[in-house]
Amino acid sequence: MEHMLTLASIWLGLAIFSAILAYHLKISIALMEICVGVAAAAVAHHFGILQQLGANEEWLKFLASSGAILLTFLAGAELEPDVIKVKIKEVSVVGFVGFLAPFLGCAAVAKYLMHWETQASLLAGVALSTTSMAVVYAVMLETGFNKTEFGKGILGACFINDLGTVIALGLLFAPFTYKTIVFVVITIVVLVLLPWMSRTLTRIYAYRTAAIRTKWVIFILFALGALALWSGSEAVLPAYLVGMVLAEFSAQDALWMRRIRTLTVGFLTPIYFLRAGTFVSLPALIAAPLVFLYLFFGKVLSKIFGLYPFIAIFRKQYQERCYYTLMMSTGLTFGTISALYGLSHGIVDQAQYSFLVASVIASAVIPTIIASVAFMPRHLLPTPVNETLSETDRNPKG
Predict the structure, then answer these.
(1) Are 336 and 276 in contact (CB under 8 A)?
(2) Which residues of 325-359 are buried (b: 16+ CB within 10 A; e: fewer)?
């Protein structure tokens, strides 16, 4: 027990350090946690104590996996159903192209420029096809764009983009057996009944027992996650769909959602992102910087050249088009989830994983900075910008 508490204090200390750095550097906490994880692993490796860091302890893996599942649920739950209904054409076209262009482009770069195996190349395409809901949502909140039709369109497109990534990860790498059929059938039944069951449970028991809605949602997430793993899939895949079908239910109680976000962001996801960072090999990156550059520019350029013509259909002003395109070029959460899935299932090795995560991190930072500095559509900014957001609202990671 002493050993577990010591390790927990170390990891939470790193999480606090990450939060302080993220505040002063004005960047996403998720991004900073990955970077601190990379640095911590490099220091531990230098002193020959990498194993003592405990990244492969079973209880730590459970906390990290729980963080990924709840984070994925929150990403789906952040969706505003009205946005999809009103801007269905825009978000569908932009989101689909935002997934397909980098998926094909990065898979081709990995396969034909770097001569990776086909499965590893497809995994690279999936990992680099994402748009970071974490980064985009944080920027939308901080600028106030989340209250405008412009910002809501970007968020809706991010959702469709990441949904494509989730589906591709499941279809390409989950083995298709009778277990898959059982998983799909049970998941569909649960998703159909879940909104009604959740509303009924809330009407009868909410506010009368201790946090029963939170227990209910986590029960569903863990149960479907266990079923997904049994079928050979990934536990985060049903979590995104659960969040999506419960988006309207979740939006009815902002305080309840804030509590779940606090649990997730304050305790679980720091473990996930820090742990993901510890698997990045700095020596591998230093030894082959061109591989990193190939993947990074493969992602960003395929996003930009693939998306810009389609975004131009819906946004006529030059700054709006450029800002929209660059924000859709970011990546973080699902990129690291996909890369870690590939590493844990032997699809990519540690060096390839390191290149993928480094490319994902770079794509979370560079396009965001360029968009904010050079192409901010200030004429669309609401006045005044909301200044009353809570700490967890300013630093979402779904």
Answers:
(1) yes
(2) bbbbbbbbbbbbbbbbbbbeeebbeebbbbbbbbb
Name the residue type at position 370: I
**Structural domains in the chain (count):** 1
Quick check: is 9 in a domain?
no
Contact, 160 vs 91, CB < 8 A?
Answer: yes
| pTM (2 d.p.) | 0.77
Q: What is the total residue count of the chain?
A: 398
**Has residue 185 got a pLDDT over 90?**
yes
CATH number for the domain spanning 133: value is 1.20.1530.20
Note whether residue 38 is domain-resident: no
Which residues constitute the domain of residue 81?
57-276+284-394
pLDDT tens sequence across 280-319 = 878 878 888 899 999 999 999 999 999 999 999 999 899 9
* 249 in a structural domain: yes
Distance CA 213, CA 307 (A): 39
d(CA 11, CA 260): 21
How far apart are alpha carbons 49 and 61 in whole angstroms?
Answer: 19
